[in-house]
Structure formats: structure tokens, C-alpha cells
Amino acid sequence: MAGDRKLRVIGKAHRKVDAAAKVTGKTMFADDLALPRMLWCRLLRSPHPHAEVVAIDASRALTAEGVRAVITGKDLPIPFGILPVSQDEHALCPDRVRFVGDPVAAVAATTEEAATAALDLIDVTYRTLPAIGSPEEAVATPEPCIHDYGDAGNLHKLIDLEFGDVAEGFAEADVVREDLFFFGGNTHLPMEQHAALADWSGERKLTIWSSTQTPHYLHRALAKVLELPPARIRVIATPNGGGFGGKSDPFNHEIVVAKLAMLTGRPVKITLTREEVFYCHRGRHPTLMWVKTGVKRDGAITAMHFRSLLDGGGYGSYGVASTYYTGALQTVTYQVPRYKFQGARAFTNKPPCGPKRGHGTPQPRFALEVHLDKLAEQLQLDPAEMRLRHLQPPNAVTANWLRIGSMGLGRCIEKVVEGSGWKSKFRRLPYGRGVGLACSSYLSGAGLPIYWNNMPHSGVQLRCDRGGGVTVFCGSTDIGQGSDSILAYIVAEVLGLDPFEISVVTADTDLTPIDLGSYSSRVTLMSGNAALQAAERAREIIAGPVARTLDIPATRLVFAGARVFDAEDPEKGMTFAEAVGTAEAAVGTIGTVGSYTPPKSPGRYRGAGVGPSPAYSYSACVAAVDVDPATGIVTVPTIWIAHDVGRSINAAAVMGQVEGSIYMGLGEALMEEMVHRDHERRLVHKWPSLLEYKSPTTLEMCDVVTYLVEDPDPNGPFGAKEVGQGPLLPVMPAVANAVYDAVGVRVDEIPVSPEKVLKALRSKAKGKGGRVGPTSFPDVPWPEPTRVATPWEGGDGKADDAGRGGQGRAGADGAHAAAVVRPERQH
Amino acid sequence: MPDPKAVITLDVNGDPVEVAFAPHKTLLEVLREDLGLTGTKHGCELGECGTCAVLVDGAPVLSCLVLGLACAGRRVRTVEGMAEGGRLHPLQEAFADLGAAQCGYCTPAFLLTAQALLAANPRPTRDDIKQALAGNLCRCTGYIKIYEAVELAAARMRGEDARPAPETLYGR
Q1: Strand, coil or helix: A113
Q2: Are A789 and A602 in contact (CB under 8 A)?
Q3: Contact A163, A400 (CB under 8 A)
Q4: Which chain B residue has its CA at the smallest distance from A15's CA?
């Protein structure tokens, strides 16, 4: 077992394998690529939030100088979408636009200027339709439907799940509390704008280079829409200049440049403008939430009922999964013996929402952690103590049938409580200064793939040659998180090599085995396990012939320092290159494969596919704030964060992920917000620019004190769990709780912006409670609940009455959707 | 017909360069499209994000807001010119050592802006660094590893035998 050896690479701080390329400007991002005779593409986008496309006349554009092709929705009639249950997008809208920015036509021209100029020469006739601006409106306005599918009117998805009898739990409680929260929408804002370059070869083969986090899913969408066999399509994901979830869907522009390359026979490239990146969006769903919790006097939860209403924007995207995620992970931090979740996602005429760092879980985590802060105050308990008393134990199965492995949240809480001086600060600081605490958990990879299949989630091929060269091939995509490096460190550890001597080839569907993509914090665990398996197999193949040559048992061989030698007599051995040569002579060319499929989850009800993960990371956070009561401006001097990463593969990279998560959480907590102008129902993005969409600069970023807690999980490679998303989650509630500690007002909305703080302070000054936040939850037509007995009620993970549950049409046609149905797996 | 091209000579990373381009082009476009120096990136092309910063006569400028024509006869430094003789600049070494480059897209501009800072102020405080880099956005790092890398490089450039603090790499 790899875990039994003394670790030489794993756990240390390393450079990333691509660090030198990144600091010298040699990394080639998608927009850095160019091919001879390349054409430039631009998209014509809708100025209306909701309209029928009556006619498109491109004749003037087609005769313009430099223009080589113009295409419209008629040229790309096949729909696509990331989830099998919501194939509701077209590369170019054929008959209807659903948000300002929805593309209707595309131009390919010899220069970017010519392509841009030609957009003005395309005449589109629209017939405008009533637009829906909010989920509340969507609930109240079932007709006209933005889409011709969904669970009810303009409600895309409706979920009602009940685990145990919550009414009984509320009856047992000493205190029952209800709260309402709203989490505003925000966007990923990667520094790199999306770009793609397509080439159609003389052999009728398509190659596309794109800044995508999910080349495999793009491959599938291209094959479907272009009606090409997948073997004729090569997708190369270029290093992403930041993703954060925003490059996880197959996008219009990727399909369009591929089609234009096929039509013109020339390479075609597009780089979105920053404004267009805001229209692609797929960011955080604005979410209204209601939570009711029953507790005993010691804070023990007896039951919890959680409702969410998500503003989905114009298309499905990952939204069905996002909706489930707003109800999935409430149970993995503290013991919740009975749990009910009702979730709804509405279509609205705004850019589509999807997965942003934390995917569907930051909103409910904000609600839950502020709600618990209020409960602790009501019970006169210290919020840290109350949480510590009721943690989920390791290896538990939750009420909603999630299996937890290692669980280091207790140590995380202790670290930040001690490090921040919590006990001397909480409710003790002078007016205007405060501290707040919150905790969280996140997946180390989704337990199920986006489309139903029994195949591995990650694959690795490994080759070793007589020169000592080792190359790792994997479909994983480096978006800056360092996934290429993870492969090198793990292989280096097993084969006793320097990670910088290992070549890594990734994210190329012609060369690399499939990895599902860089989402759900899955890559370190899944591609890492695949790499571990491939490397251990190579080690075993090499060890046999070497042991025979040295005339010792293979079990005594050590692979270290680029040598293979006898543990009992280190002088007796050979270089790694000689060892590979010895093995090649004995068995032929040395190549191995490794693959990873997550363990089967115990939940077997409809909806159980969202939430399971091979391992859960845990985080605890204390935020300090200074609140200026005159302006409402909140500044955050310091955040203390402890994160249970299982085990660091590269400690320096873990630190970077933690700090980056805190930064992004701080932006969400205080300022980042997607806002659309509602004047005359235009629903146009208010500020699609990097200047006006406020994000933290160096001047707003706080100090971060990081504690790494290592509670190795048996499912992780060397025990590793995720770190790329989890540490973001507790920041927003910790800041909101700290604002209350500082000035005694509750802003139950994200972002906690100055005008809301001021409004709450004024309300408090007038004796009106000092709270800003939502005051009602609309009357959603919830379906009949799916009732699932909890593990401690003797349940088997299935719904009480199989097939029941009224999950609507998405359920009926969702037999292949991970998000909806989780059929039996075979292993 | 396209506009007649302008021809200028300038010093790019120490090399005398003659380049012809459409006169409306920005320095960013001339560098990337006409000189093939794609190490200079862009995030908005509106002067909002700092991603395209290069040094002109030693001062950081946003290359998306400067006309190529305005750079005739001037000294332009891009990330491609930072390493000398195959050796990384101390800032590049420190950024690599600490993971101050994650996706790496904003990195060239941060490196060059920091280089200008250290040329003027070899011993910057943390606040000096924050002020100098306030016009550059980074979405990956939370800036902290960038500050630490600039401090580490500054110390090394002053001839000190500086190493990263253990808590920088391993937490507390």
C-alpha cells in the first residue's frame, strides 16, 4: 500500500510542474493560439430579454468586405445542454431568445474588425414577449412559458424530499425557529475571457482548442449538435485562465466556431469580450431560502425543514443539480435526525445560472450558519460550543443517506477558536468591531457523472521508457488549481522520482483517457486515485524483473531517488532507467493504466444522485469585521480559516486554494452582485464590466490565517480530500455573523453591502428590529413529498413507496440523469 | 482597402524592433498580434483589470490603452524579457516557489508591476505592495501569495538569504 511507505513527495511544498511556464508567459491560453488563414468569429446577441425571432436577413452582411460566412439557428438545429434532462440550448437561437445576450447569428470574417462590423449588417426581426424578471414572478406567471418543458409553468424543477418525520421532531424540540434568507447572484469573473479555435482538416476531422473545464462534455455536445462521430472530433482544453465553474458548460461559441470551420474549411477563432463573458454567466443562482429548525436546550437539532427558490435564468445549465445541491449538504456537518427539503428552480429572462465554486451549497450554508448563530443566541450558548457538541461523527450515514468518511470539523473549530482569540472577543469587542463564526463542508467530487454510465470517472495511462522517462496521460483539465501537478507528484511518489522529471499530458481527447472534468472538486481525488493505480501497476511490473536480477524478493525493493534498490542493502540496486530497461527486456514495452470509479452511495431514492461523494472536506472560519456605523461600510481585517484537507498532496498549493477561496468568499460576502436593470422590463445586465462589477482588489483583501487539518480519508489518494471550493463556504456567514456581533444588526442577505447595513442600523435606531432581509417565501406548488426512512428508522435508502413522489416530468424523462435518478450500479 | 500601415521602431525587451501595423492598434495588439509576444494577456481591453500591464520606459502602463504608435522609440518590457540568460528573474522564481501564479493569466502583469515597484523601492512594506498592485486583479490567489512572493524576491534581490516562512507554505 502506498500509504505505508515513508512519503518523500506527498505533503511537501512544491512548485507546480507548470510554474516556470506560467511565470515566463509561455503558457499558451486559447486566445494565444493562431493558425494560418484563420478567420475571426463574432456573435450577434439579442437586445431583448424575451422575444420570438421572426426573421433574420444576413444578405447585407454576407456581401461585406472580409466576411466569409454568416450562420443562424437554422444551421445548427439540434439542441444541447450539460444535463441530459435539460437539453434546452441552441448554439444560435432558432426561434426564441431568452435573455439579453442570447446569440442569434454568427459571422466569420478575415479580421476581428470585419466580423464585428458585419454584425450591424444583419437584420433581425423580433416580436417581443412578456419577460419574467424574478422567481417570484415565475411562480405567479405560469404562462407564457419560457421553455416548453419543466415541472410546472415557469418552474423548471420542483423537489420535495422528507427523511423521517419532521413534524415529530419539531414537537420534541424545546425551541423552534424559522428564518428567511436571500443570497444574491454573482459571477465567476475569470481573468481570461472564454476563447476557442476550431480547425476542420482535409481528413474531415474537427479539432477544437477551448478554454473549457470539461473537454469530455464539450466533446459529447459537439458530436451531438454537429452530427459527427466522436472519433472525428478532438477537443483540447487549453490551460484555463481561471474557471471557478464558469467554463463547465458546453457553450454556444464553441459549437459555432466548429460549425464555421466545417463550412469554410478554414480555422475559425473567437474570443469573447468581457461583456459577453457576463452573458455566458452560469454563475451563482440568486436563492431565496426559508429554514425552520427544532432544537433542544443544548442545541441538539431535532428536525430541520429547508426551502429554496432559485432564480435559474434563461436555460437549464446545471440547474437541476444546483437545486438539489441547495438541499443536500445541510446534514453532513451537524447531526440532523429528521430532515425535509423542498427546492424549486424558476426560469427567468436573464443570463443562465449554473455552477460557481461551491455549486448550490454556499447559499444554504450561509442560511444555515446564520440561522444557527441566531439559535445559539436564543439558547444562550456559545456558537462554537454549540456546533462542537453536535458534530456528525466520522463514518456516519446522514438522514438523507450520505456516507461521511473522515471528519475533521471538530479540530477545525478548535483551531480557529483558539487562533482568533474567539473567547475573549465574541460579544466582548467595542461597538463597531465584531467576530463571527461559521463552518462548512464540501464534496471531494460528485459521486455520479453528469450522464448516466457505469464507466470510470477518471482514467490515466502511464508509460515508462528505458531512458527513465515517464509520461502521465490524463483527461483532467488544469484550470490553475494544479491538477497537472497532482498527477506528477503522485506518480513521482510511487516510482521514487523527482516530480519535475515526469511529463504530463492532459485534456486532449485524442491522447488522454477520459476524465470528467474540473468541477465538483473531483480532480485530486479521482484523477489522483487513477494515477496512483497506474503508478503502482508500473512499479509492480518493473519490480519483478529487477528483483530477479538482484536476486532478492520484490517486497524488499525500494523506489527512491531515481533508483531501485534493496532496502536491506541500499548499495545493491540500479538506476530507475536501468530498472525500466531490465523490465522492458523481460516483459516488453512498459505501459499501464489506472482508473477510478467512486464507491456506491447508500441512497437509492429519486434525487439521491446529488450529494454523495467519496469524501467530504470540512472548514471552520472566524471573521473579524469593522463596521462604520456612519457609512455602513464593512471592512474585514482578518479571517482565520481551518480546513480539513484529509492530506495535502502539495502543501503550498493547498494554501493557495484556501487563500483564493477566502478571497472569493470575501467578494461574495461584501460586494459581488449580478444586477439587471428592470426599467421597462429590459432586464439588461447593469454593469457587465470588470470595473463596475465590484470584486476585491489588494486594498479590500483581508489577512488570512490558515490552519491545515489533516484527517486522511481512506477514499482519497494518500488520504487527500478537496480544498478548491470548501474554504469559500463559511466566509459569507462568518462575515454576516460578525456584523451582528459588531453592531447588533442582521443583514440576512448576501452581499452585506453598505446600504443594507445602514438600512438595518436605521431600523434598529427606530426600534424596528434591525434586520434587513426577505420577509416572505412565495406559495410554490410543491409536489407530493418523496418520503425516505432514515438509517436509524431502519430504512434501506429507498423511498417508502418506490416510484412515488411526483417529481414531475424531469423525473419521468430523466432516467439517465445523475441528478434525478440513481439506478443500481454494477461493480 | 485597409488603412496604410504605420511603421515604427522601438526597443522590445532589449532588442531593436521594427514593426508595421494598422495605426489604430493598441500596444497590446501590436505585441500580441504583430510581434507574437502572447505573454501579455488581456482581461477587458478597457483599462479596468490591469492584466495587460507592461513596462514602457520602466513604468507600468496598461497596454490596452496605449496606441502602438505612441511607443515609437521607447523601451517596452514584457514578461518574455524578464528572464535573462536563461535564468528566471528573482520575482519569477519567488512567484513559482510560492504558487503566486495559479492559473497564470494575470501573472505577467503582476510580475512587471512588481518589478517597477522594486526598482523604485527595494524594501517595500506590505502596504506599499498592496498600493502598487491595487490596479491588477487576480481571481485565483487572494493576492496573499503574490505579496509574499514580492517580499521574498525583494529580500533576495537585496542579497539576503531569504526563505519562505513555514506558515506560508504549510499553514499554522
Answers
A1: helix
A2: no
A3: yes
A4: B97
Residue contacts between A and B (CB atoms, under 8 Å):
196
Block residue for cell numbers 473531483: A522
| Neighbouring residues of B79: CB distance < 8 A, sequence distance ≥ 6 | A23, A24, A25, B39, B40, B107, B108, B111, B112
Q: C-alpha distances in angstroms, A473 versus A354, A470, A587?
A: 29, 10, 22
Question: pLDDT tens for residues A617-630?
Answer: 999 999 999 999 99
From residue A250, alpha-carbon distances to A213, A214, A219, A318, A322 in Å are 9, 8, 9, 11, 17
pLDDT score at A275: 97
Looking at residue A210, its pLDDT comes to 98
Residue contact A28–B38, C-beta within 8 A? yes
**Which letter does DSSP use for residue A455 in this model?**
S
pLDDT at position A680: 80
**Which segments of chain B belong to CATH 1.10.150.120?**
90-166
Give the minimum alpha-carbon distance from B123 to chain A in angstroms, rounded to a whole number.
18
**DSSP for residue B154:** H
Give the other-Cβ count within 10 Å of A128's Cβ.
Answer: 13
Give the best residue of B3, B105, B133 to mutate against chain A (max A CB count within 10 A). B105
CATH topology of domain A2-27+455-596: Aldehyde Oxidoreductase; domain 4 (3.30.365)
Pick the CATH number of A158-187+283-448+605-772 from 1.20.1250.20, 3.30.830.10, 3.40.190.290, 3.30.365.10: 3.30.365.10
Under CATH, which architecture does the B6-81 domain have?
A: Roll (3.10)
Residues of A in contact with B153 (CB under 8 A): none
* Helices assigned H by DSSP within A421-461: 422-425
Q: Which amino acid is at B67?
A: L
How many whole angstroms separate alpha carbon A200 and alpha carbon A260? 9
Q: Are A509 and A207 in contact (CB under 8 A)?
A: no
Is A33-129+191-242+247-280 assigned to CATH 3.90.1170.50? yes
Helix H or strand E segment including A742:
helix A731-743
Residue ranges of chain A with pLDDT lower than 70?
1-5, 802-827
* CATH 1.10.150.120 for domain B90-166: yes
- pLDDT the model gives residue A6: 87
DSSP structure string for A520-569: TT-HHHHHHHHHHHHHHHHHHHHHHHHHHHHTS-GGGEEEETTEEEETTE
Q: What does the alpha-carbon distance between residue A383 and residue A386 come to, in Å, rounded to a whole number? A: 5
Q: Which B residues 30-59 touch A at CB under 8 Å?
A: 32, 37-46, 48-49, 51
**Residue B82 burial (CB < 10 Å; 0-12/13-18/19+)?**
buried
Q: Residue A786: which H helix or E strand, with range?
A: strand A786-788
**Residue A239, pLDDT score:** 98
Residues of chain B with CATH 3.10.20.30: 6-81
Distance CA A501, CA A471 (A): 9
A350 neighbors A99 (Cβ within 8 angstroms): yes
Ranges of CATH 3.30.365.10 domains, chain A? 2-27+455-596, 158-187+283-448+605-772
Check: pTM over 0.80? Answer yes or no.
Answer: yes
What does R_g of chain A's alpha carbons equal in angstroms? Answer: 27
Q: How far is B72 from chain A (nearest CA, A)?
A: 24
pLDDT of residue B124: 98
For position A815, what pLDDT does the model report?
33
**pLDDT at residue number B2:** 61
Task: Name the burial class of residue A387, with classes exposed (0-12), middle (13-18) and buried (19+) by CB atoms within 10 angstroms of its CB.
Answer: buried
Ranges of residues in chain B with a pLDDT under 70 are 1-3
Question: Which triple of cell numbers denotes residue A795?
Answer: 430504512
